[in-house]
TrEMBL record:
Pfam family, one: Pcf11_C
Name of protein: D-xylose 1-dehydrogenase (NADP(+), D-xylono-1,5-lactone-forming)
Key words of the record: Oxidoreductase
Biological source species: Penicillium chermesinum
Domain GFO/IDH/MocA-like oxidoreductase: residue ranges: 270-414
SUPFAM superfamilies listed in its UniProt record: Glyceraldehyde-3-phosphate dehydrogenase-like, C-terminal domain, NAD(P)-binding Rossmann-fold domains
Extent of Basic and acidic residues compositional bias: 1-10
Domain of life: Eukaryota
Length: 508
C-alpha cells in the first residue's frame, strides 16, 4: 500500500486550453508525461475495460479525470489497480487482472469504495468559532439556527460550527437577547459594537448580515482586524467596493465570500452538473424571475431597508441578485474559468414613487459564450433576469404560474420551482423523443433553511487554506456587481455618495 500511495494521489487534471471544448483538453499528471484526451477516451482501463469519464470539479473549477492513475506507460482506474494489487506489491496487473477480475463493473464499484475511503482519509473535525454580526436581524437568526443543527443530518460529518460571539451595533443587551432567544450554547460573547467584536482575538470568521449599504465599511473593519469574512448579498453597493474588499482579503491572506447561499444547495449543484454533462444540450437561454407581489406602500415604510436608498434599498440589489445568480450560475459558472466572459447588458428600471429606489427591474444579458461546450456556433447565450416587488412571479405561492427559472438548451429544458433563492424542486424536460420528464425534489435536511450548506463551505475553505470559494469566486462577484452598476447607470438609479464611496473608514 505504501508503494501505491504516490500513484493514488495522481489525479489527472485538464490543462487549460481556452478555445477547446472542456472534453477535448489535454491532461496533466504529477511529473510524468501527461496522457492526452484521446488516450484516455479511446483506451479503456486495462483492468475493467470501462472508459474513463471526465467529471466537473467544483473545487478545481475544471474537468478532471477522476480515479485515474498512471503506472508505467499505462493508465488505470486507481480503484481497479488498487484492487488487483492489494495482496502484494505493485506489479504489472494486466494479464492477472483481466482474468481475475472479469467483472466489468469493477471500476465503478471500486471507485465508490475508493472515493469513500479517500474522503475518510481527509476527514477532519472542524471546530469553528463563528461569530455573528449583527444581532437580531431576521437573517442572522435563520443563519444561526441552521448553524446549530447537527451537520450529520446533511451528511456533513467533517464540519462543525460553533457560534463564539455576537455583536450588535445598537447595544450589548440586543446581542445578549439574541444569544438567549436563538438558544446559542455557551460560551458565546456578546458585544455592543462591531469594533469590539473585530478586536476579539478569539474571533476567527465573521458572518456579516447588516444592510448592504454598510457591507463595505463593516467588512473592511473586519479584514483590517485580520478576520475571515462571509458577507451577505448584495456584496456591496457597487463593483468598486467589491474589488477593494477582494484585493484587501488577498493582500492580508484572509478568506472572503459573498454569501450567495443558493449556490451551495444540492439542487443548484445538480443543475450545474446536468448542464455540464450536456443533459439539455447547448444552453442558449435562461429566464429567471425573483418577484414578490407586496402591497409596497403598506408593507414597507420609506425607511425600510427594502425601499430606502440610504440603505441601498430596491428590488435589484435585494432580489434581482438572485435572478442574476441563476443566469450566472447556469450560463457563466458552468464554463471553465478561462472561457467565462462578462455579458452585454440592456435594462429597464421602474422607480418607487415614494423613495426613488427601484421597485421593478428587467435585465437582458447577452453572453459571448454558450455552455457547456462554447462551440464556435452558436457561441452565444442570453439571460433574462427579472425582479419586481409589486407583482409576483408565483402569485398563489402554489407554483400554479409555473417555474420561476427556465434553463433552455438545444436538447431540452430544466425548470426550477419554488423561490429562486430557496428552490425545492427541479424538472428535466428532454426534447420530444429524447426521453421522459423527470422531477427531482430537493428537501432541506433537519428542517433547516438551507444556510448551513454555505456555512459548511466556509469551514472547508478555512480548513483547506483557501481564500475564496470556487462556488462563488471573487471574480464572479465582481462581474455581477458590474452588471448591477450598469443596470443602475442605464436606469439613472444613484445612491447617496456616502454609501457609494470607497473611502474607509467612513461614518455612515
Ligand atoms: N440570504 C438571504 O436569504 C437574505 C435574505 C434577506 C436579506 N439578506 C441580506 O442580508 C442583509 C440583512 O438583511 P436583513 O433582512 O436581515 O436586515 P434587517 O432585518 O433589517 O437587519 C439588519 C440589521 O443590521 C444592523 N444594522 C446596522 N446598521 C444599520 C442601519 N444603519 N440600519 C439598519 N440596520 C442596521 C441592525 O442590527 P444591530 O442594530 O443589532 O447591529 C439590524 O438589525 C442584507 O444585505 C440583505 O440583502 C439576505
Amino acid at each position: 500500500m505504501s508503494r501505491m500511495q504516490p500513484e493514488l494521489k495522481l489525479r489527472l487534471k485538464a490543462l487549460q486550453a481556452p478555445m477547446e471544448s472542456p472534453l477535448n483538453k489535454g491532461h496533466q499528471s504529477n511529473g510524468s508525461e501527461p496522457p492526452n484526451d484521446a488516450t484516455l477516451r479511446n483506451t479503456p482501463c486495462p483492468i475493467c475495460q470501462e472508459k474513463f469519464e471526465p467529471t466537473w470539479s467544483e473545487e478545481e473549477q475544471d474537468w478532471i479525470w477522476q480515479d485515474a492513475v498512471r503506472v508505467g506507460p499505462r493508465i488505470y482506474h486507481a480503484s481497479c489497480y488498487n484492487e488487483v494489487t492489494k495482496d502484494g506489491p505493485a506489479r504489472n496487473p494486466e494479464p492477472q487482472a483481466r482474468t481475475s477480475t472479469p467483472d466489468s463493473v469493477l471500476g465503478k464499484r471500486k471507485a465508490e469504495v475508493y472515493s469513500k475511503s479517500h474522503r475518510g482519509h481527509r476527514r477532519q473535525y472542524i471546530s469553528l468559532p463563528y461569530p455573528v454580526l449583527p444581532a437580531l436581524s431576521h437573517l442572522s437568526t435563520a443563519f444561526v439556527r441552521d448553524l446549530l443543527l447537527d451537520p450529520k443530518a446533511r451528511d456533513a460529518g467533517d464540519v462543525a460550527h460553533q457560534v463564539a460571539a455576537v455583536a450588535s451595533s445598537s447595544s450589548k443587551e440586543r446581542a445578549e437577547q439574541f444569544i438567549s432567544s436563538v438558544g446559542i450554547p455557551g460560551p458565546c460573547a456578546a458585544y455592543g459594537s462591531y469594533e469590539e467584536l473585530a478586536a476579539d482575538p478569539n474571533v476567527q470568521v465573521v458572518y456579516v448580515a447588516s444592510p448592504h449599504s454598510h457591507h463595505y465599511q463593516n467588512v473592511m473593519l473586519l479584514l483590517e482586524a485580520g478576520k475571515h469574512v462571509l458577507c451577505e448579498k448584495a456584496f456591496t453597493v457597487n463593483a468598486a467596493q467589491t474589488r477593494i474588499l477582494c484585493e484587501t482579503a488577498k493582500k492580508k491572506n484572509l478568506f472572503l465570500m459573498e454569501a450567495v447561499w443558493t449556490r451551495y444547495f444540492p439542487l443548484s449543484i445538480q443543475v450545474r452538473q446536468l448542464i455540464q454533462q450536456g443533459a439539455i444540450g447547448e444552453v442558449l437561454r435562461v429566464v429567471a424571475d425573483t418577484s414578490f407581489g407586496d402591497d409596497v406602500e403598506n408593507t414597507f415604510p420609506p425607511s425600510h431597508r427594502m425601499v430606502n436608498p440610504d440603505l441601498a434599498g430596491g428590488a435589484l440589489l435585494d432580489l434581482g441578485i438572485y435572478s442574476l445568480t441563476w443566469v450566472f450560475q447556469t450560463l457563466y459558472h458552468t464554463l471553465p474559468k478561462e472561457q467565462r466572459k462578462a455579458p452585454a447588458v440592456t435594462s429597464q428600471i421602474t422607480p418607487y414613487h415614494l423613495t426613488g429606489a427601484d421597485e421593478s427591474t428587467s435585465i437582458l444579458l447577452s453572453f459571448p459564450t454558450s455552455t457547456p461546450s462554447n462551440d464556435s456556433h452558436p457561441k452565444r447565450s442570453q439571460g433574462v433576469a427579472l425582479t419586481n416587488i409589486r407583482c409576483a412571479g408565483d402569485p398563489d405561492e402554489q407554483g400554479t404560474a409555473g417555474p420561476n427559472i427556465r434553463i433552455q438548451g438545444t436538447k431540452g429544458e430544466i425548470q426550477v420551482f419554488g423561490n429562486p433563492f430557496r428552490p425545492t424542486k427541479y424538472r428535466v424536460i428532454p426534447k420530444k423523443g429524447l426521453g421522459a420528464v423527470r422531477d427531482v425534489e430537493c428537501p432541506f435536511p433537519a428542517g433547516g433553511r438551507g444556510m448551513y450548506w454555505e456555512a459548511d463551505e466556509v469551514a472547508r475553505c478555512l480548513r483547506d487554506g483557501r481564500l475564496e470559494s470556487a462556488g462563488m469566486p471573487w471574480e464572479e462577484s465582481i462581474v455581477i456587481m458590474e452588471v448591477m452598476d450598469e443596470v443602475r447607470r442605464q436606469g439613472g438609479l444613484k445612491y447617496p455618495e456616502s454609501i457609494e464611496s470607497t473611502k474607509y473608514p467612513l461614518q455612515l
